[in-house]
Amino acid sequence: MDKKILVYMALLRDFGRIYTQRILSGAMDRKTDLKLSQVKAMYAFRDADSLSANELAHLVGTKLCTATVLCDSLEREGIVTRERDPADRRKVMVTLTPKGKKFRKDFLAHRHRIARKIFSHISSADQIRLQKALATVCEILQQAFVEEKKGGGRLKKSSPRNAGKPAAKSRKTAP
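^ that's the sequence the OP posted. Answer follows.
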């Protein structure tokens, strides 16, 4: 794999690990068996009390079948309930329970405390640099995802990975 890609992936992994460990420190001390994936689900509910199972899967970054397993565990913990949408019986709605709303409120407050604590140790100039850098990263990644979607997620023929390989033969038959 290209060395630049490996460096990029390592930086993203390290950022995610550092951020997640710090944000989750203390969040998991509650008397619950919530796992990281369940906490991600709780964060998906930051702006809504109810989501469709498809919306939840998209926000958590999983497939629908994985989100279903996740909802099973959240439901066992008393964090969410599931029911069919009366307007569209094909749609399953996942809704926070009062316990889930309290957990979300506590978790988001914890995240804000951690962010304030971290930023208190960073100079104003570095805070601005960090915010600009993160905004740039988000812009670049969003544009890359848009471009990938336009290409259908497939490698283009000019891709270095396909260099030197013959083009795939067409399956069309001659008239």
